[in-house]
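Researcher: Quick test of sequence recovery. Tokens follow.
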């Protein structure tokens, strides 16, 4: 090739790249939208949790516009602030926001192509088929299995408290929820309570505690097409191999021996054979991806919620006593049996969990992407298709105009009377609308059971190893305590 042509081609490519970069970096200025300017150091600051960064922008720009423009590295992002705009994104104008825009790579990282990440018709069809797994009727069927795991947890706690009076509870709670999901989803006894190194627990720990490659994460977010071309994976290969193997073995055993448990794996087997899917059967990798997300999303979010709840109860003894009285009163009414009907009557336990989810939403930011040009209501701004939108859940939940004295832990915010006074989209730990968390009922149920069993038998107070206040670890997207949760535990 003529050297002059090669130089010209390179110059054109460089020039085009610089032009595109400039257009990105002036994206919000060109749209005349209030925005936070590009700040590369702040964008990649590993010491501050994303929830707190977005809270800064929320406070700075609230009241100026329904959303604020910001940049993640060089990527323009609209941070929704106005609650009416949240309503549009979640429900009213859902046809413009039905995809999350989160990275997945079906070819090289098959477990990443799960319900949380999938888009368009593929997501819609799968969601329709998976939703029946989490109805109240299915919760009743799974309830005895959850209670069995809860009994193992309670027995283990009694044994531990007999030997030592200060315990690290974050890991114990994660072991409990790992066992619940292992039994309910896979029909497998994980035995994480008696064996902290059980494989399921190891794999869960690996997924959430393995060091993140921030450069890779940035590339997957900013240039997902390039990341897919390069074959980038976000799930550790060892973890992926383990889950693919477990799902294959479980399905093969059930099909060969005609075993039916009416659980999540049974539903997926129906999808694999095509008997439960109108648009044709799913591949094995597609089925395995749904089993994977049910596991990782279910055990960590519920255990983290219970962790924060116990922390708050340990520093608010009056609330802990009121919660314990709620449990005891309902159990007395039901002859001491923690039945499904009994757990559903523990309204103050629900209020404790709702207030915990307000103050510490496990998923502190919701993601959406504009799928076609969208005119933002009450503005002249048109957000182009492909624009990323984020909802700062943590910031909204800590807005003193919505939740007065937001740092105070107060379950009375969630009485029916108080709820009716607030905007319906002020509390969204699970999202809202068609993409609301499909496992919400399941997650709340295992958290209710865990908290009721613990309050029934134990008192929790701060001990010598306790850290007050607890801070978030910036290493995890999930709002998780940096120092774990050490509490003094006394058997009642």
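Model:
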């Amino acid at each position: 090739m003529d050297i002059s042509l090669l130089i010209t081609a390179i110059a054109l490519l460089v020039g085009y790249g610089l032009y595109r970069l400039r257009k990105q970096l002036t994206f919000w200025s060109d749209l005349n939208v209030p925005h936070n300017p590009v700040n590369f150091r702040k964008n990649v600051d590993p010491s501050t949790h994303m929830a707190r960064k977005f809270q800064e922008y929320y406070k700075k720009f609230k009241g100026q516009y329904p959303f604020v423009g910001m940049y993640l590295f060089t990527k323009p992002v609209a941070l929704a602030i106005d609650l009416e705009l949240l309503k549009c994104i979640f429900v009213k104008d859902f046809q413009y926001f039905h995809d999350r825009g989160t990275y997945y790579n079906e070819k090289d990282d098959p477990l990443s192509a799960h319900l949380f990440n999938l888009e368009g018709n593929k997501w819609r069809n799968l969601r329709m088929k998976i939703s029946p797994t989490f109805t109240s009727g299915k919760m009743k069927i799974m309830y005895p299995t959850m209670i069995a795991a809860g009994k193992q947890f309670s027995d283990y706690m009694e044994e531990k408290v007999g030997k030592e009076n200060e315990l690290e509870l974050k890991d114990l709670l994660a072991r409990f929820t790992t066992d619940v999901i292992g039994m309910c989803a896979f029909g497998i006894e994980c035995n994480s309570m008696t064996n902290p190194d059980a494989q399921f627990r190891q794999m869960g720990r690996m997924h959430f505690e393995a060091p993140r490659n921030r450069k890779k994460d940035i590339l997957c977010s900013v240039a997902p097409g390039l990341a897919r071309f390069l074959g980038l994976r976000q799930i550790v290969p060892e973890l992926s191999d383990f889950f693919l193997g477990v799902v294959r073995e479980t399905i093969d055993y059930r099909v060969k021996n005609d075993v039916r448990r009416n659980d999540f794996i049974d539903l997926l087997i129906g999808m694999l054979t095509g008997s439960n899917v109108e648009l044709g059967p799913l591949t094995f990798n597609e089925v395995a991806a749904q089993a994977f997300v049910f596991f990782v999303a279910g055990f960590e979010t519920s255990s983290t919620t219970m962790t924060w709840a116990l922390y708050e109860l340990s520093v608010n003894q009056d609330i802990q006593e009121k919660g314990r009285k709620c449990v005891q009163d309902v159990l007395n009414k039901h002859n001491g049996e923690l039945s499904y009907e009994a757990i559903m009557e523990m309204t103050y336990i629900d209020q404790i969990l709702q207030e915990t989810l307000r103050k510490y939403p496990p998923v502190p930011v919701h993601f959406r992407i504009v799928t076609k040009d969208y005119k933002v209501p009450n503005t002249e701004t048109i957000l182009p298709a492909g624009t990323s939108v984020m909802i700062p859940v943590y910031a909204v939940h800590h807005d003193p105009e919505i939740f007065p004295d937001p740092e105070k832990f107060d379950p009375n915010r969630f009485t029916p009377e108080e709820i009716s006074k607030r905007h319906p989209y002020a509390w969204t730990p699970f999202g809202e609308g068609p993409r609301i968390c499909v496992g919400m009922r399941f997650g709340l149920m295992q958290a209710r059971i865990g908290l009721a069993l613990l309050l029934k038998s134990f008192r929790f107070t701060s001990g010598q190893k306790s850290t007050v206040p607890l801070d978030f670890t910036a290493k995890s997207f999930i709002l998780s305590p940096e120092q774990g949760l050490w509490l003094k535990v006394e058997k009642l």
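Residues 284-315 form the longest helix (32 residues).
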